[in-house]
Write a structure and sequence with these properties.
single chain; alpha+beta; five-stranded antiparallel sheet
Length: 109
């Protein structure tokens, strides 16, 4: 199994093109949980041209690109403190990736 790699913003702008919603992380996972296991998000509010995404991680795992992001909260404080319905984007099935992230969060809480 390949290691989980967080892409830089420059890499992500190219690699994440064409990804779309494939699933969700289980409810209850907050920004701080993701930050603990994934570090700084790849993209922050100032990177969103239309404000639909406040925070997004772009990751490579097993040769595929996955994104974890909030969607249309339009509120940075809400996303940081209350949001728990993270979207998962990819070009492929994302269930195994969702399990990986959920297990990582569980081990670090």
């Amino acid at each position: 199994m390949e290691a989980l790699i967080k892409l830089t913003a420059d890499e992500a702008r190219y690699e994440a093109t064409g990804t779309s919603l494939k699933g969700y992380l289980k409810r209850g996972i907050k920004f701080t949980d993701l930050y603990k296991v994934l570090g700084e998000p790849t993209f922050k509010p100032e990177d969103s041209g239309d404000g639909k995404v406040q925070y997004e991680w772009v990751l490579k795992w097993n040769g595929n690109i996955y994104t974890i992001y909030d969607w249309k909260t339009y509120n940075q404080d809400y996303t940081l403190n209350e949001y728990d319905h993270w979207h998962v984007g990819a070009k492929v099935y994302s269930g195994d990736f969702e399990d990986l992230i959920e297990n990582m969060v569980t081990k670090n809480t």
